[in-house]
Here is the input.
Amino acid sequence: MKHASFGSSLAIVLSVAAIGGLSLTLLSSYWIFLLTAVFVVGIALQSLGIVAGRTGMISLCQMSFAGVGAWTTGYLNVAGFPGGLPVWILIGGLAAVPVGVAIGLPALRLRGINLAIVTLGFAAAFDTVLATITFPGQTSFNQVARPALFDSDEGYFLFVLVVYAVIAVALEVVSRTRLGAAWLAVRHSERAAAAVGVSVPGAKLSAFAISAFIAGISGGLLAGYLGTLVSDNFSMMQSLALFAVATMTGAHYVHGSIAGGVLIALFPELMRRLNLPQDLGAVVFALGAVQALSTGESMAEALMRLFRRLFPRAVEAPPLLDEASLPKPAVAETSASALDVSSLTVRYGSVIALDKVDITIPQRTVVGLVGPNGAGKSTLVDAVAGFLPTYEGSARLAGAPLDGLSPRRRARRGLRRTWQTTRIAPELDVGQYVQLASGGVSAHELDALLAWLECPAASTPIAFVDAGTRRLLDIAGAIAARPQVLLLDEPAAGQSYAEAVKLGQRIAEIPSLFGSAVLLIEHDMDIVRQACSTVTVLDFGRVIASGPPQEVLDLPAVRKAYMGVDGEAEAAA
Amino acid sequence: MDGLLTAATAGLSAGGAYAILGVCAVFTYRLVAVVNFTGAAIGATGAFAMVALIEAGMAQFPAIVLGVLAGTLTATAIGVVMTRWFSGATASTKAAVTAALLVGMIAVGLRLTGGQDAHLFPAVAPGSAFRFAGVEVTNAGVLTVILAVVFTFAAETFLARTRTGLRLRALSERPMAAELMGIPVRRLAITVWMLTGAMTTVALIIIAPQRSPNFASMSLLVVPALAAALIGAFSSFRAALLGGLLIGIVEGLASGIDRFSQYRGAVPFIVILAVLLWSQRGARWDEAR
Here is the structure.
């Protein structure tokens, strides 16, 4: 376990233990009973946080998943299945997994809104089914048996607390793994996630599976908590309220899930004491969620921002350069060229964006691709990286054809790209992003690479990094993967002149240090001259020149295309 | 066979209402780029306002007019929230906002209408229109289907043939550009909300007598509505119209068969699953991702 992960896990365990200890010594049984509900709901909120908060999808059927877990628990109780409540709850959670996957499947390739519709439809369907089949033991008043050790209300409170802590720690650990980073990357930009080799469907499905599992567990805990259940406990209205609260408090944070649990479980009690209607809660949740959505910040995030302002965290100094620790080349040198693009043609309707373009990038070289705006440079990157639905012609990576492969497969085979606008998830830190993009380098290699590109320290949150530096991180991530070919789309845009010159030197060194060939798209001709061994010039989708930079860039046709200057007219004047 | 035909025609008025709601959902999405989860709740607000007025002694016709007005006002309020605070937000955020608003609306609606207490919804178009192959076709069924068809073609013509329709299409595709060109973006958006508010209220008033008359279950008619809109891929009015009718008829058929009748509420979900699995066969990367 990494240091940071261990620290926050310890913090979770200690605070949950403190809450448990304080509650049990100070509070009456009545309040202990209410507080148990807070943590049962807290677990349901954490399950929603995985899908909604981390992966950025809308799920409106979380309580239906909980209902599957609760129904299974009730069934195993009536059937007298061996192992008692803990085992039943676990099986209940597992029973919810296939349901979650089945709901997630139709939304794999489409974004949030469709998923919201599917999940709401499922919640409605589950309502009708549950009302018909009823809970096992519901009509015979067959109570779900609690484990002997935790039979009292205090005991069951402890049991729920332990389950809550285990899940919170597990999610904390997962959030720092590649899977956790992949969820955040998918939430922020599916294209960028696929471009670093993340399986977008895999990330979404795993989020749904784990989310359904945890929701199922919360349902099982609720079964043990209440003893008997009715279908209303898991109605669509409950799912909607859970979604509103999760949005309002930020359910993917530990404190957000507890705050949400307090709201859902204790708000009715507060209203009762104030002689106000108890359903006022739903209105408050709705308004709170709308407020959070309009500011783009949940309660948990606002709290963290406040905390950071009061106790600013010392920003770690950028690492020192240690060239010996830089990641070593991982590409086997073959005789074939690194990338062969032949007669690539892309049409948008009747517009021909690329017209039979041929480009070859030899192994371990930097090839420049220049041309005026609209010449088709970025279209070429999109086509080669697999982001266009169709193109004619072919692209071969080290001799192997890429055509028809998904962006993720191309990335995995050793073709990486960067973006003109940065698409790094701001919730990650610098190290997490480079690790996600690279597929794993050692801590020494990471520090050396960050120092080499003059990036901030690995522990710096991306949210603190300016846009220009984020583009460097994009490059750092791509280099760390040590791909066969690296497509850099205007890396120097947004950098100062001095920074751009330095970046040019670094790009020129990439082939020898990391073994990758580079296709460099750039408007800054100083960088192109500095870094590239050959240059290809595009204009209106056609290659108009190709060769060594000093020759090509001075050709009259190139000067005309680029600056609108007619070379001969200039000479005549 | 006769039994099945009876069951299918019984689903006709529900289908017509789903079609109206579905066409409204497409209309809202195409013109103001919002997938509106509060659609049916807006209509339910108007329908319950009408019932309250009738229970207070008002005659049916003015009560209907005022009910439709109440639905229009509710929709306007939501439209103001959406255009004031969320005009620049992503489609996903807007959908989340309406989903959250739905929670609040249902809670308020249940409180004001007395939860599960029954309200007697008067039939707007009672009686039978004609007999077809020995099966009664109700006036309500004919009325909703006609309204749905009229609204579908009116919406299509409006968007394709009028200057305002063209402006509205520009508004949903590039709100910022539309605003810069001097199109009164907010006023047009609010108009769209008002129009759909009125239409959904009419639809819900017609089918309310055949439904369990409580605010929550009427608000949840948004599920078949969105299923219908999904069949039209949130762009085709005609497909949404047919989709809504289809869902209603399949529901009617399901309730005609004893073994399935209790599960008819699951029909829209099955339709949604099928449509999504079918429509995403060829899904590709688009700019939004």
